[in-house]
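Sync notes, pocket subgroup
Present: LS, DG
LS reminded everyone that the earlier model was apo-only. Rerun requested with magnesium ion included. Inputs:
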Amino acid sequence: MIKPTEFELIARLCKDLPVNPALLVGPGDDCAVLDVGIPGELLLLKTDAVVEGVHFTAQAMPEQIGHKALARPLSDIAAMAGTPTAALVTLGLPREFDPGVLDRVYAGMNALARRHQVAIAGGETTTSPGGMLLSISLIGKAPKNKVALRSGARAGHALFVTGELGGSLAGKHLDFEPRLEEARWLARHFEVGAMIDLSDGLAGDLRHVLNASKAGAELLLTSLPVSRAAKLAARNRVGAKTPVAAALTDGEDFELLFTVPSSQAVPLLDAWKKEFSKLRLTCIGRITTGPGIVLRDKSGVRTLNEHGYVHFK
Ligand SMILES: [Mg+2]
């Protein structure tokens, strides 16, 4: 039996899905988008699961597991420039578990939910034959004309990324803060073309944007904001990726990747520095007519052939 990749499996499952006139954007973006008749507003829906051994190990602190389980779908609401409202939590628990550990998982989740005014509105518990599974479904909203999709990148747009890239698995993936406030600010003040949150790695997620937008991109390798963790890993570990390769392909950065018309690039950088002085924003290239991703550095230009992180093997 040949096992499909994550993306082949999704394509297979999404064939001929039932629809409803309220559904504006189905599978293939960071959230589903629905128009349920609320004047001026659209609903956003998202579900996401973390599984012991895949998304966290037994060494992770319980608070971090709860935080990460909610932060991941919140990051997808951010990628639509939306505001999260409420969550439902499904817990799969081994037959033997420590209720005190679960209290700490919930403490991590609840603290993040409170910071973003997200109600935990219900849930379900079940037994898991393996390790712990924590699945969270989120509902959110966005103003009708401000929802940021993956399909909005146009040739000539400038390409931006928040924060720093690479080396997330050294720790950041358990502690990251979803960029909700930043994304809403962007959509309010600038013409965001396409936006996505980085979960599969810059190269893989940029490809998602380019496929949805039917465009290409040119990346300036020297401008990539490489994280300290990625630089340290390259220095200390034999056979580790170069820092630039880590920034391109490491998963779970959970930063925002987005485009704006090039005329807004400089005003955006100026306004960002005043609004979010503690978070880096970097212009890393531009959208082209394509196809594909071209890398530019001092030695010239080449085509990107590295792949993003694949979540299951
Ligand atoms: Mg996403």
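DG: The longest strand covers residues 41-51.
LS: The longest helix spans residues 62-79.
Action: DG to write up.
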